[in-house]
Amino acid sequence: MSSPGSPDRSGDGRWDGEVDVAVVGGGACGVMTALRAARDPDLVVAVFEKSTREGCNAAISSGSLAAGGTRFQAAAGVDDSPQRHADDILRASGDEEWRPVVEALCAVAPELVEWIADTGYPIEVGMDMPRAGMSVPRLHSDVGRLGGGRLMRHLTTLLEAQPHVAYVDEAPVVDLVDDDGVVTGVVVEQNGTLQRIRARAVVLAADGFANDPALVREHLADLGTPFYGGVSTSTGDALAWAVRLGGRLRNMGAGLRSGLVVLDHGTRVSPALPFNGAVLLDVEGRRFVDEESKGYSSMAAVLQQQPRERAVMVWDAVAMAATRNSEMMRDCLAAGAIRDAATLPDLAHTLGVAEDTLARGLEPLPGRRALTAPFHLAWVTHGLLATQGGLVVSPRGEVLDAAGRPVPGLYAGGGTACGLAGPSSDGYSSGNGLLSAFGMGWIVGNALAAARVGT
Ligand SMILES: Cc1cc2nc3c(=O)[nH]c(=O)nc-3n(C[C@H](O)[C@H](O)[C@H](O)COP(=O)(O)OP(=O)(O)OC[C@H]3O[C@@H](n4cnc5c(N)ncnc54)[C@H](O)[C@@H]3O)c2cc1C
Prior knowledge:
The protein folds into 2 domains: 11-254 and 388-454, FAD/NAD(P)-binding domain (3-Layer(bba) Sandwich); 256-384, Succinate dehydrogenase/fumarate reductase flavoprotein, catalytic domain (Flavocytochrome C3, Chain A, domain 1, Alpha-Beta Complex), CATH 3.90.700. It has 14 helices and 19 strands. It has helices at residues 28-37, 57-60, 71-75, 82-93, 99-118, 148-160, 213-219, 237-244, 296-304, 317-323, 327-335, 344-351, 355-361, 432-451; strands spanning 17-24, 45-48, 65-66, 123-125, 139-142, 165-168, 173-179, 182-190, 193-204, 227-228, 249-250, 255-262, 279-281, 311-316, 339-341, 375-387, 390-391, 398-400, 406-412. Strands 1, 2, 6, 7, 8, 9, 18 and 19 form an 8-stranded mixed sheet that branches. The longest helix is centred in the first third of the chain and has 20 residues, at 99-118. Flavin-adenine dinucleotide binds next to helix 1, helix 2, strand 16 and helix 14. This is FAD-dependent oxidoreductase. Its cofactor is FAD. Residues 20-424 form the FAD-dependent oxidoreductase 2 FAD-binding domain.
């Protein structure tokens, strides 16, 4: 596939290699696209990955997969469906215009989660993973709750076993090649050399732009100066190339935020804590929000408005027992990010607040359980994990131009495409990120395998 590179991006029309499918980015969307496309043994697929040393968001994610209507839910007595899943997402986002894409992704979600399980990955539905806006338990996770790193290692190992797929690491794509608006390949940089790789289909799976300060300033200035909790590779590389070819950007002001980032540590406490009685208090020990009413992304904006952009989350042994079996709480404990207070006076002393104010702050809201000493606590602030705005795509993953026509040969998924949060970060539902990425990888990869990309 590769030969000594051409000196510049135009390459005087010469190609240095040829594949059927070139995938830009070897994270969640890219690996799934390649795995599904590779079911056609006549397709040659190359995944060009900027750097696995720097990593992808999928590998540092919690690995929670949202899917409605799986056999795991059925076995647990959960009545769910792709339609209910889509309706929940759209209720949170308010983005009805995006319904066809949301419904397409929710439709394939059960199949893809069950397929991952059938490849030997231990999956269960997280009955202990309630989330705001999720009308039934719908997040699926690995048994043992080790997070996205384990999942990505599993999928990448499957990919490596495919004889006609090349996963090329330390090989950032730096541009697209087109012939009068028809995408015909990519320009890849390897060892300081540029190579033009011809491809019948190019899939942009390079995630979003959360680590590009200029783009974040341009589109997400209202977030202030959040802690950044994503990977360094999310620099929005693919967006400008696609826009040059007529692609459109949408919902660029939306992000996946978290209001659960532990100050000075960068770990996150479990989003299930509020559903187990945990309360959020301001710097004076007063409660300021119904913790269950907000998803972790919309909670970020609430914390941003608090004095010193912080709050303390307080919980007890019961809440700890219900949540500690997650990679998030394990990370917090390992980092020393959780402190303890034996009694209410101890807690007031630790927080530097008046005991009577604190006692009022800890009073349970109607229908909620009361916390009992001893207590656990963590100071939390708001963070940005990933962006949710991106390229307008069809429900089949085709990149669309302003007239709604596909840019020939070009597909996008995951964080490179417009996500499911709608115009604001408040509309993000838990599990949307990997649903967009794996879901669109599934859809595009299957279509490429079925169609043999136009041959
Ligand atoms: C801390 C954290 C926790 C999360 N938890 C969850 C969760 O539990 N559930 C959920 O649904 N979502 C979660 N998310 C969101 C989810 O991880 C992302 O939405 C998802 O990984 C996006 O998939 P992707 O394939 O678009 O990008 P990624 O998985 O980030 O992969 C993109 C890949 O593209 C590569 N790349 C970038 N530019 C180039 C280039 N020019 N050339 C070649 N390669 C390139 C990158 O190196 C990277 O490997 C979480 C995110 C974070 C940060």
